[in-house]
Fold these 2 entries.
Entry 1:
Amino acid sequence: MHIKEEQVERHVLAVLVDNEAGILARIAGMFTARGYNIESLTVADISADHAISRITIATNGPPHVIEQIIAQLDRLVPVHSVRDLTEAGPHVQRELALVKVAGKGENRIEAMRLADVYRARVVDATTESFVFEITGAPDKIQTFVGLMREVGLVEVGRTGVVAIGRGPDSA
Amino acid sequence: MAEKSGAEILVQTLLDLGVDTVFGYPGGAVLPIYDALYNHPKIKHILVRHEQAATHAAEGYARATGKPGVVLVTSGPGATNAVTGITDALMDSIPMVVITGQVATNLIGSDAFQEADTVGITRHCTKHNYLVKKPSELAGVLNEAFHIATQGRPGPVVVDIPKNVQVAEAEFNSHNGKINSRYQPQVDGDFKAINEAAEMIMSAKAPILYTGGGIINSGPKASETLGQLAELMGAPVTSTLMGLGAFPASSDQWLGMLGMHGTYEANMAMNRADLVICLGARFDDRITGRLDAFSPNSKKIHVDIDRSSVNKTVRVDLPVIGDVGRVMEQLLAVLKGRKFNAPDYEEWWSRIKGWRATDCLAFPENKTEIMPQLAIRKLWEATHERHPIITTEVGQHQMWAAQHFDFEKPNKWLTSGGLGTMGYGLPAAIGAQLGDPDALVIDIAGEASIQMNIQELATASQYRLPVKIFIVNNEYMGMVRQWQELTYESRYSNSYSDSLPDFIKLAESYGWTGILIEEPADLEAGIQKMLETEGPVLVDCRVAKLANCFPMIPSGAAHTEMLLTPEDVKGTMDDNAKALV
């Protein structure tokens, strides 16, 4: 017997939640309990009175699973709203990465050149290393990190994606 | 404003919320609460013998009364023992509030004595849970906990209270549970969807009402409304295990339960219907059989208060989110407003009559041994006029009870459906008897299941509860054995109930009356004796050991591929079928 696998698609969800103890465990645990995937998850307090946090979840699954993920998130008591940004239309996705490269000579010069092309900023430098800060859509960061691997990548930290819909309306 | 201890605030808030019964077991981390209870005789505390039983008793109480069940247990093992019942309540949508003691806030995380991460452990088996860190938050949390447990799709809520929060004081004003909660589920159905549903009903030629536990949860009025809707439509009605009793089994329109051990006519009608109206049910795998063959030619309307139930397993044409009782009322109003007259379903009914003629619940006659189905039938004959509350354990006896015990009213059938928890029936019967003291309450049990919470015989004795246990004793974990016969060529791996106790002596040692029924000729007299004996009675009814539960949709099969008799059993299955639950 073989276990069948289905075609998946990537969706980015914006979830507004009560900023209370255990909320992250509740959300992340629901994903594992029901066998859903998390590509990335970011969370931060966004309201003036610190009452509401916004969680951005990049997930993937077949369309009927995505529909279930949204419904399952929505029924959690501390969840105020769930918006499928991928479904809702045009939106901006951004991620920040800190990328450390070490090396000398040609590699070091090439790293600097590539950073310039990708509009990465140097936030730390020694005679044998750089730390670049790069912001952009996840695939741009993916590409940049890939290039850095060839010129002495030491370490990389990524925030995971945050996203917001285009235009005047709120999620 | 007066200051009160957290424990006093808790007890006072329970009183304000109208709680009269609490099922619990004391321990170190709830001593302050137990001390506060000592001053409040208005709250009846039922001392169980194991925390799992406290949760099932609370479920039984909730199902029989419609009110939330309340549980009080200590930290660590008290809480972990309660987890099975909490999960059971989640799966079957039973309103329940579980109060757990916790080690003091400054000790949390230090692996203190009887510490367990209760909030972490119960996060995914509750509808919601709380760790209360200040006594001033307690009243608000409890009010919201009861609101969440009872509103929308009901479910269990855990409130974990550290011991120092029970002792510390805060200002408290008694008030009557009016809260402004963030949790506000949709009750009324969307008007456009209701109209669309009415149109689908008006153009259907072969509709069927497929009802579930949501109707029972919605309250007795929803069962009445279902009766009106069914009468107006003149359509056949079937139900899940959880929904039995919402529609009277004596009605001509009743097809019996559907699904794995449902009737042939109910399953065939689901398969051939052109419109399935799902009312408070969730297309569970026990109902649908093979998904791609489930009711293939029908349009489907799904009424559910929980949006996540919609399109979870079966795609539907029209979801209606709302309370099923309320939505049926709205639907009735629209249908009547449009002068809906039930069309002539004669052809549809004549096909159903054909399926009914199979007489799928018939069982072989047996002169020497009691057939388990006959035992249930006779129990029904002897008791049905008293509208007894029937609880069950899990297994063959449960399915025979569902098939052969007919219900006319809601809140009379208490069984563990979603989680399938052996050991449910006795504590649930205790809870039901406390909720409805004058009712005849019978736990239809198996000899294996009953042993999972057998210690609760003592609880019934202590509170003089006249519950009856009717053990359908075939000396096997019968449903396991049946699946081994279907799937594994009758290799009976660990399904024999060896070293059984003498149930009669066991019952007597707890102050119960024990009755042994061995011969078919003694069946009716034994049942009569059980009914005439005051106080709690345990009946050990020895039945045909190898009888199996038919009809049955085997794993991975469609509604149209039911096994009707033992002759249909092949004894093996392919791996794909074996892998299904």
Entry 2:
Amino acid sequence: MKLAGLKSVDGAHDESIWAAAWVPAADHRPTALLLTGALDETVRLWRPDDLASAAPPVQGHALGVVSLSAHPAGAIAAAVSLDSYVRVFDVDSGASVATLDAPPSEVWGIQFHPKGNALAAAGGGSGSVKLWETEKWKPITSLPVPRPEGARPDKTGSGKFVLSVAWSPDGKLLACGSMDGTIAVYDAIRMKFLHHLEGHHMPVRSMVFSPVDPHVLFTASDDCHIHIYDAKEKSLIGAMSGHASWVLSIDVSPDGMAVATGSSDRTVRLWDINTRASVQTMSNHNDQVWAVAFRPPGGTGVRAGRLASVSDDKSISLYDYS
Amino acid sequence: MPETAAEANLRKQLEQTLADEPSSPILHSNLGVFLWDRAEAEAAAKAEGEEEAKRLRAAAAEHFLAAAKLNPNDGVPFRFLGHHYARAGDAPRAAKCYQRAVALNPDDAESGETLCDLLDLEEKESLELAVCKEATGKSPRAFWAFRRLGYLQVHQKKWSEAIQSLQHAIRGYTTCADLWEALGLAYHRLGMFTAAVKSYGRAIELDSSRVFALIESGNIQLMLGYFRKGVEQFRSALEMAPCNHAAYFGLASALLAWARHCIMTGAFGWAASLLKEASDAAKVCTSFTGNISCVWKMHGDAQLTLARCFPWDDCNIKRGMDDGIFKAAVLEWRNTCLSAANGAKFSYQRALHLTPWEANIHNDTAICLDLICTMEDNNSLDPIVWELPEKMSLGGLILEPVNKDFWVTLGSVSCNQALKQHSFIRALHLDTSLSEAWAYLGKIYRQTGDKQLARQAFDRARSIDPSLALPWAGMSAENYHQSGDGPVNESFESCLRAVQILPLPEFQIGLGTIAASSGELLSPQVLMAVRQAVQRAPHYPESHNINGLVSEVRSDFQSAIASYQQARFALNMMCNSKTDNKYRIADVSINLARSLCKAGLSTEAVRESEELKRQGLLNADGLQIYALALWKLGRHDEALLVSRNLAENLPSMKQESATAALGFICTLTYCISGKDSAAAIIHKLPGQLSYSTQLKFIICALDALQPNKRFQLPQLSMPPRLTSYEVMSEVHSNIALGKAIGGELDKFLRVDSGLSYLRKVLHMYPNCSLVRNQLGSLLLSSGDWMASHKAVRVTSLSHGYTSNRGLRSLHQIQACAAVSCYATCTSYPKFSFSTCEDHYLSGYNAIHHLQRWVHLEPWNQDARRLLVLAIFQKAREEKYPKHICSILKRLILQVLSSDNNSQENKVVQYGNYLILLLSSEVSLQSSDYNNCIAQATEALGVNSSIADSFFAHLQLCRAYVMQGNHLNSKSEYMKCLQNHTDTEIGWVMLKQLASICSLEGTSDEIEIHLRECIERKGSNASKWVSLFNLACAQCSLWHEDFASAEKAIAQACAEGDPDICILFFNGAISMDIAWRFAAPQFIPRAASSLRKAQQKSLASLPIVSLLLAQAEGSLGSITKWEKNIRLEWFSWPPELRPAELYFQMHLLARQSSTAASQQNQLVETMQAPERWLLRAIHLNPSCSRYWTALLQPVYV
């Protein structure tokens, strides 16, 4: 289990890069591609091995791209920008497919359903998770985050700001993380709130379910820790510490054996899930790392694991994971 | 099947050719083959065809015989002869024929296979081997032989040889699942597990119904630790063969192993559900075959593990919990565990009954019995009677007296200290490096109080096997009881290690206790451990108590309260001695009271405290909580009384808690009876008390609020090295604030004195971010003209993690500075020219910085507000382009909509008021007057409770003026006059409106107000007066009253240090007057103002030089005119130069060309004069002056 730097592109965007996502291989496109979104209001597309630009940048994400998610079929992707529109676009042509508005509150992190029939968005200041269906792009529902029983006083006065959202790979669970560190878990089939997961006490900016155990959830928080939850049984089953500052993003390897995290301490770390320990620290970025993403399996002739990380230093780094 | 015409034809042909050439073996053979095939067809067609077939075969055999005789080197006839004899039942003859055939052609799979089958039937294995070996030796393509050989070698367990044969055979039969399966088995037996898994996988891929391959590869996955894959494989095997007990056994063991893995990570709920499945699988397996002891043992293992890990779930009793419900829940949990343990016991008993000679089942039974004993809690203290577990353990030992592990088991299940010690020592006799025995021995020594021996034993155990939890826990306990700072930390680390290795509730509670005393409660590892402890040991009060502490430290007070209550119930359930229990209940109750108080349930907190007081168990901590709760309830007198009570106890307390209590008393007194009484308490302080952090803070805060009688406390001015850096910087920033607050509280802040103090502090602590932030924010709130520039320079810009302490965060200061520069700081000259004298932000994008901040803290409304302001600033600089306006409107909507729940906060309200005004301004600029008026009116509504409604009226007035609604604008104007403002710019703007509303009469009033305002705030008078005069001049200009305009602007220039814009304006007006009224006396004035403006501006402003050139030209100095024209050329960006500039250059070029001073390359000589002129005409063809110039004789 190790990472080896393959390539780094400095100045890949004109400004801080905030979001990255792999677009899986599709029928018309044999390999997965990397999408990145940045403060410079563009989304760019990169080839997987040499990080060559694969398409002209997609403009118009006003005020900067906060979050990106690619549809599992590999044809379309969605981006959230600071003006709180979700813009859905065709990956290859960059043409707009739909623009989803969530007035008057906001959206932050997004993720497509593993089967691709829904899009979930962390509802920011509305304190909810919003869901859209992906055929006509009509809103399905909005799942409110109930206040936990031990309601704690808010420091900012603004309600519960929901930052991150994650689907379990079997599509049965949906989790969302908030700025006060609570994580709400929903039954995604009956659209019902199940319970809160406790343990973090600072914003949870990123989370991901394990691809091999559909109820194991990995979360990254500003409290510098990475937690492992059994989301179904509502228990904290592991915690990993080592980052010197906020943990901004997390992703799990396709084999489910390792997680990678990006942090405000400007490093990317690789963690062994079995030993609950950091295996490797990459410090090639010189500003905070806002997103890490493992390439999904699939595509022709693709065996090697790839990890991409993007940072405020305007660079993209690609690593070989083996 | 009768012969068809074609076949008959063929037969005839064959017979014919044979008749022609009777000595050809080939032809005999061909006819034989034809006849043989016919015979087969006949036999297959119908039963009665058998006779005909026999006849045909006999005929064929004759031909084959003939062929064999004619050519004994052809194998084919021998093969068919073999078939013939085999069919006739003449096995030896058939074998010989086949042997001949194989010998002649080793690749002949058919003969070879049939020969081997024949030999197999006769059980001539060695012969079979010899045949295969011979064939493989002869030809590498004899794949049948390799296959047969491989199977035989597998059968004979010659694994490595089998692998070679099988691998070779697979080259010939790549899709033969049997071969792959056999290869897998061979690898498996040789211990090459990965290769085995791959081979089995290939077999399953080729034929998905391979149960053997599935089960075997499942077993290997299990051995390699991939439980999940193992479970999958056993499950799919069971789908194929639903009654296969090997698959069930494998499934049960895989699930058990997986569950054990889950237990090690602490996922008990998960483990429990896996174990239930495992024991179900084992149960099914026993129902197939009830007489296999190992299946019963497996069932027992699963049940025993379940009994040990079944978690207690408290989610059902969160609400309305009382003693009874809690007790019932705990009992239910215990019963579940107990029934699982009993199930295990029965299974072990069955296993023992089936195989009483297996010593390890005795041992397992002993362990299980021990667990049941501890759960039932009925340990009789009779040392004579041997306990059941001991007996079973001894039973195992009698069968296998040299098994060291059995000795360890005996030691751990026994209740007798001597026997324990004896067994461990016996175990160590057998193996001196048995770490478990050492660890248990250490435990015994610890219990008997022999510290030295205990430590040695633990040390030895730990050095032999560092992955054993018990010695770590033991060392942790050893270290914890030592005094001092270091060991506590070491003890925490050791205990953490123990918990990570083995999540036992005892270790976890220990970890919680150590964490509580060393301040590590926030650590997620502790949280996880303590939460698990509650799941595993709900009957221990301590687990609930520490759980409460963990919740409390995470500000989850409701859960904390629930936990403390549970802790009390658990204490009540325990049947210990009364006095012991009383103190423990008191401790928990104080915790409970504190949490109640923190959660805002003061009434309950008071009730708890009073209950404690009644029992006489209220200590210093309890008193503080009591007083605080009373104060929160508004019972001030009682609170003061309690605090006095506390003060009496002070001398008897430890130093640390005494200073903390003192700080509490001061704060409470301040809150109840104000600063004077608090000050009195501090004055009464005993001098020798050293001041803690908090106390210093309180004192300097009080000091800040005490305008007159400053505490002349020597402690505050002590040398910096004596106290910690952090504390001192906080104290100093507090003092600075105190200085700023100044004399009377209702006056404006005296920011300057605070600033000068902070500057000194910064000199002392140059790298303290808090002081820098504080300085920056004070600078911003000072009326300093250049504050925004200075503030940015004081604070250091850093990305990423920043501390948010101080009045404003670093981000805020940066952002505020960016939007508060009074000048237009645009860096892009397309929209406007930068008039900012410092250009501090050149190359730095404030909006991007703010966007980063919003991205970092999306919930932060301040960041969003500042982003709105920054974008507004940008819109203003770019003359309100439509796209920016629409983004602004959306952002404003966001900011306003997300603030619904904090309407009471005045600061937020004021922010909303300003944002609404801003939104109104955006509407005004996009000529949407109705919206503008509506939003300004809404702003007035929001602001109804706040004094400063001046600007809303001003905005309304502007909107009405734009609409042309004079009546309304006048009334708004009068409202402005009535509602004073303390912001100077308001008056200046009002002055501009005064003339438009034709309310000149009130002008003086405005000036008076402005002067008052300046005086009150002590701001820079000359700047504001000059600005005011500028406004006056503008008004006069609108009325074409040039004389008074000139007078006003001259006054503006006369004030102190005028701005370049004012100087420029003065020059322009003077020039205009000189031109309009032919009054040359104004030209020198204009020239002097413009000269000053030119000198002051760093990057030369356009048009200034041009005007100056004209003035200088009129004054008769041609060289100065030339110089200024050239300056003007360079002060424009190339793409924006106007036509007039080219015309002027044309004039200049003509001038120079006539002067013929071409030795030094000047700008104008780059082109010929007529070129300049043509360019001017090209840029602006509508100007007749240029055309006239072109008509001049020079060019014609």
